[in-house]
Amino acid sequence: MKTLIKKSSLLFFSALLLSAVTSCSSKSDEVEVQSAQHFTVASWTQELQYLASVPTLTEGSLTFKGKGLEANGSRYIWHKQYVYLMNLPLKKFIQYEMGKDGSLKEKAAILTDGVVPNYFQSLNIVDDNTMLVFGGLDVNNGTVGWARIKLNEFVIEAKGTIAVPYDAANSGVQFSVGKAFVDNGKLVLGGYFYDNIGKTYAVDGVRALVYDYPAMTNMKVIKSTATEGGVGYDYLHSLDKDEEGNHYFVASAGKFWTGIGGKSGVVRIKKGTAEFDKDFFIDVTTPLGKQACLMGINYVGNGIAIGTIQYEELMTSVRDRLKNVGQLVKIDLKNKTVSLINTPLSPVAMVRSPLVLNGKYYTAITPVDAPAAAAIYEVDPATGTFKKGLSLDGGGSVNVQLIAPHPTK
Known about the structure:
The chain has helices spanning 2-30, 285-288, and strands at 39-45, 49-54, 61-63, 69-70, 75-79, 82-87, 92-98, 104-111, 122-127, 130-135, 143-150, 155-163, 173-183, 186-195, 200-201, 206-212, 217-224, 230-231, 239-241, 247-252, 265-269, 281-283, 292-301, 304-311, 326-332, 337-346, 355-357, 360-365, 375-380, 385-393, 398-405. The protein is mainly beta and 409 residues long. The longest helix has 29 residues, at 2-30. The protein starts with a helix and ends with a strand.
């Protein structure tokens, strides 16, 4: 009997010890080690286009040639640990994975032929596993293609076409699809109208399109008369939202950009609605005392956004946006005030996708004819002050299209 008790006790304590060891091992396995922060910078340089990883944005230097992946890109977006780009020459939509160790590698790709009429033009994150893309021919005659991508599997989940405004009697005027968001079962789609015959923008207030989602039916045109311009241009960061879920569109009203001049600024669609807020418009042009056209906007928190403007009085055509015509502005969305951040003049290509991280705003400032001055700048939204960080070498010229943070766990 005593032998049996001793054996039973030994078995019990052995099992208890094994359980404790297993339990400790499991907890240890669950602990994620935090790595130092890395960043991916997508850029067009003097010769080629690159994706390159760097360990910091605030110091040091980056030479793109030989230091990154050659990657032709037209439209860029990042979400979670991935960077996505539309490669026009290859007709591929490519997913690149950003590693916590600073690595960057192509993970998957989708061939775009037959998915939408042309290419993945407007890229929009709907939720953590869904991207909604749009594409349309320049002359679409009232039909634009869309596709819904499941990001975890990186496959096309559904695709089809939507109707956009079109008048056969005025066939030169076509709707160009822009940025979009989904809220409360509605898809709100920005864009602009262009007259291909008259070679000018067709402007009638600010208009956006609303559809039932995910059905993609029942098109409705919503309008604001706050200014005369287009909203949500497709390859700029022209749409953002605040902590409350209210969405803010850039209303570009420049002579050379989606409008006919006048006041450029910000319009709002409140959370849960699918109409422009008639009591909300922030005029960015008038406070600056110049013909400043707002091009991009990033919400940074506490009611503050940082925007990029182009001075159209320094321009003679739309191509001049690649000259030194752009600066930054601080926009107080609550008090509807605008103040200039007196950064060096730079091409407006710098606004395509800046980064907001830990309450700071990061963008590239790359003055033409001064390649040694090209750098990532850090802006403190609270004070409007800025400082030069990572220097950029593009072999003669460089335009940054995207800055994205790698995961740290």
